[in-house]
Automatic annotation (TrEMBL):
GO biological process terms held by the UniProt record: peptide transport
Entry GO CC: ATP-binding cassette (ABC) transporter complex; periplasmic space
Name of the protein in its database record: ABC transporter, substrate-binding protein, family 5
Protein family per UniProt: Belongs to the bacterial solute-binding protein 5 family.
Domain Solute-binding protein family: 3-368
GO molecular function, one term: peptide transmembrane transporter activity
Length: 451
């Protein structure tokens, strides 16, 4: 890989035929907008100096341009440039025969089942320790049994239930856990959305009143829910920023939406959501039937269905009729990306990055803003926190703005913060050199296994 490949990777993200969500990560490079709109055949803010150096010019000063700058994974120009960008994501060169930049290379892919990696002898750090690594797709309910039999050595992103089973096993399994930047929320799709134009449309008024959203959060016993489904590997959160991040607000500065079903009922009564026909469920203020349509993605995690049912139970106890549906993961993501009409209330978890800026998920103009929020005050806070003329390199100034943003979002509550998680990795006692702490390099290059 050389600089031409890095430039090519950026040009792919900026191309008008690229349909993914990462154009915002490169749009502030000088000339990227003209290239994206087809007014230029290259990005003039990218200048190759030599095979290993380039100069990047941005259109304005912004605090996080370097931490947010696209550094990988990089694409091979020589290998991929003959594939039209509109076909790239679905091409065999990406899906079946990918080329990466790591210490191992792909030997074989069995779609939906496994990927076999073999060591790359010419890796820049030298040959990796292991000859091969096999990545397998296994039903979550079977993972611990497979580890006990020796079929699996490591499982990342394990659940609390899996950790509990591993701790009670006699097969030499170790549970590694550390604070993480993961958090989960219940979101509301608040506006129509044109994905192709990346334009937010008409408001969807059903959940427009923030007091209704607050009532829905007060109605959920998050402590009980977390204890039941995360086995101690998560905690309540009232922010859209995990507490581990350096920009996180002091929890004491935020409204604490502790479980209070009576308060939820009083808010609903005041808003006019009342049971008018005696069926035990509330109608809306106009007397029309009101039902929450709540979706969760499906998968092999056995907690998905019961934890969704638990949310339904909490809401129905305060008189809010709730319909739940588990949707295939790919379809679920597609519906959110397009703000489909039947996507109203949904569950989502996110893993934060080293750059703490939450703009990608909550700024009005970002494709990944799945709630399709239109909150000008929120946008202004997020813009100000990155404005070099306002914050420079002063982290305290930047944090102060992000704290104001968190306080605003904590009151506005465009979504319902549910939990912040801990990372869980389960390994057998033969694996060495695995570090899961935030900020450490989990590179496969360092992994070894005793015979």
């Amino acid at each position: 890989m050389k600089i031409d490949d890095w430039i090519y990777s950026i040009e792919v993200l900026a191309n008008k035929d690229y349909e993914g969500a990462y154009y915002p990560s490169v749009e502030n490079i000088q000339g990227a907008k003209d290239y994206h709109e087809g007014k230029a055949d290259h990005i003039n803010g990218l200048k190759k100096i030599d095979d290993y150096t380039m100069q990047v010019t941005f259109d304005k000063k912004q605090e996080n341009y370097l931490t947010g700058f696209i550094t990988g994974p990089l694409l091979s120009k020589k290998y991929l440039s003959d594939v039209p960008i509109k076909d790239l994501a679905k091409s065999d060169k990406i899906r079946k025969y990918p080329i990466g930049i790591g210490p191992y290379k792909v030997k074989k892919i069995v779609p939906g089942e496994a990927v076999q990696l073999v060591k790359f002898d010419d890796y820049w750090q030298g040959k990796p320790a292991l000859d091969k690594i096999n990545l397998k797709v296994i039903d979550q309910a079977q993972i611990i049994k497979a580890m006990e039999k020796g079929d699996i050595d490591v499982t990342n992103d394990a659940t609390g239930a899996m950790a509990k089973d591993a701790k009670s096993s006699n097969a030499g399994l170790k549970v590694l856990s550390a604070p993480s930047l993961d958090y989960g929320l219940i979101g509301f799709v608040s506006h129509d959305y044109d994905k192709k134009a990346n334009k937010t449309g008409k408001v969807r008024p059903k959940y427009e009143d923030k007091e209704l959203r607050k009532a829905m959060l007060y109605a959920i016993d998050r402590e009980k829910w977390i204890k039941a489904f995360f086995n101690g590997y998560a905690s309540e959160i009232n922010s859209f920023v995990p507490s581990m991040h350096w920009i996180a607000a002091d929890p004491k500065e935020l409204n604490d939406y502790k479980y209070d079903p009576e308060k939820a009922k009083k808010i609903l009564d005041k808003l006019g959501y009342k049971d008018r026909d005696g069926d035990g469920f509330r109608e809306d203020p106009k007397g029309n039937k009101f039902e929450i349509n709540f979706k969760h993605y499906s998968g092999s995690n056995p907690t998905f269905e019961p934890r969704t049912a638990a949310i339904k139970d909490f809401w129905e106890k305060v008189g809010l009729k709730t319909n739940v549906k588990l949707v295939e993961f790919g379809k679920y993501n597609e519906d959110l990306a397009n703000a489909s009409k039947d996507m109203e209330v949904y569950f989502r978890s996110w893993a934060g990055g080293t750059d703490p800026d939450p703009s990608d998920l909550y700024h009005t103009d970002r494709p990944q803003n799945e709630m399709r929020t239109v909150l000008p005050k929120s946008d202004q806070y997020l813009d100000d926190a990155l404005d070099f003329d306002k914050v420079g390199i002063d982290e305290k100034k930047r944090k102060d703005i992000y704290v104001k943003w968190q306080k605003y979002m904590n009151d506005e509550l465009p979504g319902l913060p549910m939990f912040q998680g801990k990372s869980i990795t389960i390994v057998n006692d033969k694996v060495r050199n695995l570090d899961i702490e935030i900020g450490t390099d989990q590179s496969l290059y360092n992994l070894t296994k005793e015979a």
